[in-house]
Amino acid sequence: MIKRMLALVLSLMLFISAALAQEDTIASYALPDGAEVCYLTEASSLAVPDGLQPMYDLMQHAVLRGDVYILRMPNGRALASVSSTPVRTTRSAEELLELWPQIAANIAKEGVTVNDDASCAKAEDVYGTQALHITTDLTAGENTVVLLKAEAFAFCTEGTMVEVWAVWPDEAMYRYDEQAAQELESDAADLQMFLKSLNFSGEAYVLQGSDYTDPEGRFTIRLPDNFVVVTPATPDEELETLRQQFLSANAAGADAVFDSFVEDIKEQNVTLVLTGDMKGAITLFCDREPDFAGVTADMMATLAQPIRQMLVDRFGIAILLTDEERATISGAENALLGYWVRSGECSVQLDVMAAVHGSDWLCEADIYTLDGDQSVRALLSSLIVQTLTFTVD
Predict the structure, then answer these.
(1) pLDDT of residue 64
(2) Local structure of 227: helix, strand or coil
(3) DSSP character for 33?
(4) Closest Cα to residue 78, out of 195, 196, 197?
(5) Do 366 and 352 meet the contact criterion of CB atoms below 8 Å apart?
(6) Pairing of strands 219-223, 361-370
(7) Strand 113-114 to 129-140 pairing
(8) CA proximity to 209, closest of 237, 228, 234, 185
(9) Most confident among 42-51, 116-125, 315-324, 329-338 (mean pLDDT)
C-alpha cells in the first residue's frame, strides 16, 4: 500500500517561491532545507561554527542603506547575502567592471586581504541581465585567520543596485578535519543550488496559448503553442524522437529523467507536457484512489522524506527543500513538496503538488525545471496555479 502511494505522489510539483524582502520583493529563491535567512540587523544571532567568526563578521559589515538579507547554509560553513540599495547613477555591467579595483580596495578596508587580479571580475549574462561577476580569494581575521572563497554578482536596474555575495572557507582549511570537510561540501552544494535558484525578474507572465483538455475529461490547462503533450497514446517512435531532443538539450544524465517520465506515462497514465526548448516539464496525474479518501494536505506532506528516498533510488541525489508549504490549486488545498535532484551531470528542481479532490480523486501536478532555470520554473508554475482545473467529482 505505501509503495503504491509513493509511486503516485512521486510525480507531483510546486512553485516554491519566498520573498526575501518584507514588502518590495528583491528576489524569489529556493531555500535549502535547514538553511536560515534573516535581515542584516539580526545576523548576529546566527550560530557560528568554531573558527569562522571572521567570515561571519565580514558578511555583517554591509552598510544598511537598503534591504540586506543574510542566508546561512545548514551547517553554517557557507553564507550568502542579497541586497537591494537605491543608487543615483544606474551603471552598466561594463561600468561596474571598471570599478573592480575600487571594490576590492573597499573590501580590503575591512582588514581583509583580497585577490584583486583583473581576471577575478568579468561582465556576463546572468539572472536574465548583464551583471558584474566576481570570483576571488579572501583572507580574513586577526587572531583567527580564515582562508575564504568568494563569489558575487552585481547589477543595476531602475535606480537600484542589486548585489549577491557568497563566501565559504577554502577546502584547505579542513584538510585534517573530515567532519568539517563533509559539512563544507554539503553547504557548498546547497549554496550553489541557492544561487542558481535566485530569480530577480518579478515579472508577471501573460499566459498566451491554447486550452488543452485531457481526452478522459479529467483536467484542462492552458499551454503555449510550442509545448508538446505526451500521453499513453503517443506512438513509441514519437517518444524516441522527443527523448533524443531532450537528451540533446540537457546535460549527461537527462536520460534517466526522461525515462522516468515514460515509466510514469505507461504505468500511471500520466500526461507529460514538455516545453519547446526541452528545459522544463509538467506531469499531470488524476485517478480515483479510494485509499486516499479523506487524506489532507498535512497528511500528504508526511510522505516528503520517503519520496526523497525514492528520488535518490531513481536518480542518485535528492535534497528535500521544503515540505511545509501549502497552496490552493483548482479549489483544493495542496501539499507542496520541493526537491533538488541530480542525475549524473543533470540537475533538476522538482516541485510537487498533491491533493484529494471530491471523495477520492488523487490529483497531482509536477514541475521539472532543468538546471534550475527560474524563468522556466515561474512560467510553468503560473500555468498550473492560474490555468489548471481538475474536472472531477
Answers:
(1) 45
(2) coil
(3) T
(4) 195
(5) yes
(6) unpaired
(7) antiparallel
(8) 228
(9) 116-125
Q: Which amino acid is at 51?
A: G
Question: ∠294-295-301 over CA atoms, to 5°?
Answer: 165
Q: What is the pLDDT of residues 10-20, one digit of tens each?
A: 322 222 233 22
pLDDT class of 89 with cuts at 50, 70, 90: confident
| In the predicted structure, residue 345 carries a pLDDT above the cut 70 | yes
Reading the block at residue 21, the C-alpha cell is: 524582502
**Amino acid found at 167:** V
Distance from C-alpha of 90 to C-alpha of 137, rounded to nearest angstrom: 28
Three cell numbers, residue 127:
539572472
Residue pair 286/217 in contact by the 8 Å Cβ criterion: no
For the full predicted model, state whether its pTM sits above 0.85: no
* Torsion over CA: 94, 122, 21, 200 (sign): positive
Angle between the 304-315 and 2-9 helix axes, to the nearest 10 degrees? 70
Per-residue cell: 259: 525515462
Tens of pLDDT, residues 363-390: 999 999 998 777 788 788 888 988 999 9
